[in-house]
């Protein structure tokens, strides 16, 4: 069968190969970028793309399988003989195809090691293959760079004549694979066994998204870029509890000390209203602090929420508190500002940072707020949670309506 032949089904299935073994970065597919495991980021992007009907993660790892399911993917267990370092991605794709039950029209192969998958570009690639405009399409960055090969006799120009240096506007662009996605006609892929066949088309993506994580240094770069790559707004802010640090979150991290040694801090009244609205919506709230300060106790009492102080191991304290209430950590939002919050940010489903947080906290956050600590950041987070729950803009609207007479 020729690569241009077509499958009978119109379905497009996104497949994310994500094995457990990784030598460069142990557990790479589960490391967090922007507060989200890499495999989950790929699943979210695939689910956001227009034209994708199903998302499948093929893996040999239980933890990756669990993260994939939580993110909205089906899981195909990948056998050990195609899970080693020498196994090709194509072998995983072919195995996943055999497990689907029906032959899709096309497959979208996404790599979890690309944390910033360009969803509009992926949607374009799916449409091109689905309509027959392309047999295979791949994400690429346009480049006008001069490429060289180094040999025993020195460097040799690859895509240019070294004796002639035309201006950029006089040259044709080349395309560099970003590695984020490949969309393939299923019949063509089966007949050739590889990802490039028939009419192959590059789909241009923003250069800012074109990073692949294969080393600790690239992981650091991706985490630094994460605050600039906004998560799709359609991802629901699904939380049952909001937990916050105190200093630098409820306050601006400044303290005034009187002559008798008494400390004074400033808090935002709007934060108090935000906490009240969370309580009235049935969302648990907690202040979790490393310090011990009567000001924190007094503030929590006024807000009528739980408080845990003197917690050197904040992650363990949060686990205990959440377990006692039957709240999964994936449904907890934690708002922090400094490095002692990092262990907690790593375990919750929604790690959040105030706008003036430490750079490492900004890099670990799934959401960076617009407001700084002590300037209504808690209220901003509360409003975001309530909007996602579909809460009314005016929670007191019912009380303002005229009383209805009872029917006799």
What is the SS-derived class? Answer: alpha/beta
**Helicity level:** 25-40%
Report the total helices.
13
What's the rounded overall pLDDT mean?
A: 87
Strand order of the largest sheet: 5-4-1-6-10-7-11
Sheet with most strands? 7 strands, mixed
The value of Rg in angstroms is 26 Å
Low-confidence stretches: 1-7, 391-408
Number of strands: 19
Question: Beta-sheet strand percentage?
Answer: 15-25%
What's the shape? elongated
Distance between the amino and carboxyl termini = 76 Å
Structure explained in plain terms:
By secondary structure, this protein is an alpha/beta fold. The chain has helices spanning 38-48, 62-70, 89-98, 119-130, 186-192, 216-225, 269-280, 294-303, 314-325, 342-345, 359-364, 377-388, 397-400, and strands spanning 12-17, 32-33, 36-37, 54-59, 74-77, 106-110, 136-143, 148-151, 154-157, 174-185, 200-204, 241-244, 256-257, 263-264, 284-288, 306-308, 332-336, 350-353, 367-368. Strands 5-4-1-6-10-7-11 form a seven-stranded mixed sheet, with helices on both faces. Strands 16-15-12-17-18-19 form a six-stranded parallel sheet, sandwiched between helices. Strand 2 (32-33) and strand 3 (36-37) form a beta hairpin. Helix 7 (269-280) runs parallel beside helix 12 (377-388). The radius of gyration is 26 Å and the shape is elongated.
């Amino acid at each position: 069968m020729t690569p241009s032949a077509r499958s009978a089904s119109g379905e497009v299935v996104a497949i994310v190969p994500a094995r457990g073994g990784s030598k460069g970065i142990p557990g790479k597919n589960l490391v967090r970028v922007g507060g989200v495991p890499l495999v989950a980021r790929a699943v979210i992007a695939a689910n956001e793309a227009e034209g994708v009907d199903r998302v499948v993660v093929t893996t040999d790892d239980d933890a990756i399988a669990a993260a994939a399911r939580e993110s909205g993917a089906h899981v195909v267990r990948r056998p050990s003989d195609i899970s080693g370092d020498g196994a090709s991605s194509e072998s995983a794709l072919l195995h996943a195809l055999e497990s689907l039950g029906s032959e899709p029209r096309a497959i979208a192969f996404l790599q979890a090691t690309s944390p910033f998958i360009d969803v509009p570009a992926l949607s374009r690639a799916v449409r091109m293959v689905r309509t027959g405009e392309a047999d295979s399409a791949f994400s690429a960055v346009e480049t006008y760079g001069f490429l060289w090969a180094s040999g025993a006799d020195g460097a040799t120009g690859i895509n240019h004549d070294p004796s002639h240096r035309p201006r950029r506007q006089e040259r044709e662009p080349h395309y560099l694979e970003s590695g984020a996605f490949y969309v393939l006609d299923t019949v063509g892929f089966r007949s050739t066994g590889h990802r490039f066949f028939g009419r192959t088309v590059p789909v241009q993506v923003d250069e800012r998204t074109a990073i692949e994580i294969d080393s600790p240094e690239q992981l650091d770069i991706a985490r630094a870029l994460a605050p600039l790559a906004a998560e799709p707004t359609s991802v629901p802010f699904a939380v049952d509890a909001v937990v916050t640090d105190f200093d630098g979150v409820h306050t601006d991290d400044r303290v005034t000390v009187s002559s008798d040694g008494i400390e004074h801090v400033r808090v935002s009244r709007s934060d108090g209203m935000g906490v009240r609205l969370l309580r009235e919506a049935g969302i648990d709230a907690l202040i979790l602090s490393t310090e011990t300060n009567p000001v924190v106790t007094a503030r929590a009492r006024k807000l009528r929420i739980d408080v845990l102080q003197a917690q050197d191991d904040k992650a363990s304290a949060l686990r205990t508190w959440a377990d006692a209430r039957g709240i999964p950590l994936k449904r907890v939002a934690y708002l922090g500002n400094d490095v002692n919050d990092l262990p907690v940010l790593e375990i919750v489903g929604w790690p959040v940072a105030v706008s003036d947080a430490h750079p490492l906290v900004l890099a670990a956050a799934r959401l960076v707020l617009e407001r700084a600590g002590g300037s209504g950041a808690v209220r901003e987070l509360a409003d975001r949670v309530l909007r996602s729950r579909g809460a009314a803009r005016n929670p007191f609207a019912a009380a303002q309506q005229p009383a209805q007479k009872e029917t006799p």
